[in-house]
Design a protein that fits this description.
Blueprint lengths: L4 H5 L7 E3 L4 E3 L5 H9 L1 H21 L7 H15 L7 H14 L4 H6 L2
Antiparallel strand pairs: 1-2
Length: 117
């Protein structure tokens, strides 16, 4: 690696890299999660990825109390797979999907129900 600081700070949004597959410089590839780490760096990129996958954990915990959480869980997992193989997550469509899943999570409250509150 020519610039190890990029692993910590990232290269920034819109930064280009040479892709041997494409044969030219490109700002993004088809591997969104690796692009997130390349653009934002390892600490901030991992934070973003953890926040992205938090609804999967939350909805899977909700399955103990409400099986209606199964459908948003499956749909969001399918979306995360599609978004991971297309440059879809870091866009207005990706943020709209994140908004939709986080707002639907309000319906399921596994942590409050498990404590008896």
């Amino acid at each position: 690696m020519q610039h190890p600081g990029f692993l910590i700070w990232g290269q920034g949004l819109g930064s280009e890299f040479y892709s041997k597959g494409f044969g030219y410089f490109t700002p993004q590839s088809e591997l969104t999660y690796i692009d997130i780490i390349r653009m934002f760096g390892l600490p901030l990129g991992m934070f973003f990825i953890i926040i992205t996958f938090y609804p999967v954990w939350y909805l899977s915990k909700s399955l103990k109390y409400d099986w209606a959480a199964f459908y948003p869980l499956v749909i969001f997992c399918a979306y995360l797979f599609i978004a991971g193989t297309n440059p879809l997550l870091i866009s207005s469509t990706g943020m709209l999907a994140m908004l939709a899943i986080f707002s639907s999570m309000r319906k399921f409250k596994p942590l409050l129900r498990s404590t008896g509150a």
